[in-house]
Design brief:
This protein is 46% helix and 18% strand. The chain is built from 11 helices and 11 strands. The N and C termini lie far apart (54 Å).
């Protein structure tokens, strides 16, 4: 059976086309921006082709150092199309933690979210010999001597102008994907020593998607969810993939401080969460009472 994550975008675009897959808020005016399955597929294919053009090989690693945003999902699924491996780094990680994870995973491309994360990436670039490129999600002001960075928009443009040979190579890699290919590496917090990378093959996600569909019988593509836990955490990463697997629309919440406002506006029918969130909600309600 083909890997679910490797082929998920293609399969769901055939089924849902121009229907919404997720939405996120415009940082300028706060309006919701809706992304359809068709648009998502186009973005994933462009970044996948850009990765191949830049020399990323199957089962090589990329690192993603950012808070929640659509570009994380696009980068992850572009990596799957190349049989490459996304390595998640928490957006609040220290310089030392980022350096350690990149060197331990030997990641080839480092995606960063904002100016603060770009600054950390630049401070360690000479200590991380595996990195061939930094890609910024935000259009940050680059250092004057920076010759190893491009914006996500530039990477999209590179992929959109890819040759037929490049596109065919990505399709070939996608077709050759195996269930024992590594899907992702999730690093522990490192509270008891150096962080350790948990290696998860695609077979894990194949099993999780199917068993959740079998057991969560009340869920369908009529349901909606909110992505608010960090996509660098396996709980939210897997849940968001399950939402897409089920065809459920979801809203990507950028800042955890705004999650209650997002819940009011989007009104999800289901979501994944942790006890600490509900403790905060309970405390907040009691304070208002």
């Amino acid at each position: 059976m083909p890997n679910i994550l490797t082929n998920l975008i293609d399969n769901q675009t055939v089924k849902y086309g121009d229907k919404e897959v997720f939405r996120h808020k415009n940082s300028i005016d706060g309006d919701w921006i809706i992304t359809s399955w068709t648009q998502f597929k186009q973005q994933v294919e462009a970044i996948a082709c850009a990765m191949e053009t830049l020399g990323l090989n199957p089962q090589e690693n990329i690192a993603v150092f950012s808070s929640n945003r659509p570009e994380i999902l696009i980068s992850d699924y572009a990596a799957y199309a190349n049989r490459a491996v996304p390595v998640s780094i928490y957006s609040t990680s220290s310089t030392g933690q980022v350096e350690y994870i990149i060197n331990d995973s030997k990641s080839r491309i480092l995606f960063v979210g904002n100016a603060e994360q770009y600054k950390i990436a630049r401070s360690i670039i000479n200590k991380c010999p595996s990195i061939m490129l930094i890609v910024t999600f935000d259009n940050v002001t680059r250092d004057a001597d920076d010759e190893s960075t491009m914006t996500f928009a530039q990477m999209l443009n590179l992929g959109n102008n890819a040759s037929d040979d490049c596109k065919n190579e990505v399709k070939k890699r996608q077709a050759e994907a195996k269930e024992d290919d590594i899907a992702t590496i999730i690093y522990t917090s490192g509270t008891t020593g150096e962080p350790k990378g948990a290696v998860l093959p695609h077979s894990c996600f194949d099993a999780v998607m199917e068993i959740h569909k079998e057991r969560l019988t009340t869920l369908s593509d009529e349901d909606t969810s909110v992505c608010f836990l960090p996509l660098s955490h396996i709980f939210e990463k897997a849940w968001s993939s399950f939402c897409m697997f089920m065809g459920m629309r979801f809203a990507i919440n950028y800042d955890t401080k705004n999650v209650q406002q997002t819940l009011k506006e989007f009104r999800p029918t289901c979501m994944c969460s942790v006890p600490r969130f509900w403790e905060k909600v309970y405390t907040g309600i009691n304070e208002k009472i």
